[in-house]
Amino acid sequence: AHRAAMQGAAHAGAEFLEFMRVCHKLKRTKRTGWVDYGVPCPESVCDHQYRMALMAMCIGGCDPDLDQARMMEIALVHDLAEAIVGDITPRDGVSKEEKAQREKQAMLGTCREGAR
To answer: pLDDT, tens digit, for every residue of 48-73?
Structure first.
């Protein structure tokens, strides 16, 4: 039983590291809209998520009716799928339905990796 538990923990650790590796891609994934419009030094998706989390922290702390922690969680994960599917914009010619499907599949796989 102990050996099986150790193997399970090692497997979970490997899956967590893979999740973190996927998330790391967001540091290098530039926001497509910024690139398309020639913005110098375009921000990465990770930069965007971090700034959104800070905004959520500040705004959420101003109103007791807001769930600050939940707002920050959403800000941190709302673009995780882009590590797999990229930053799809309307200029890419992908329908909203197709974009939603791609992102949903990516999130299901990413969340499975991170949750294990």
So the answer is: 999 999 999 999 999 999 999 999 99
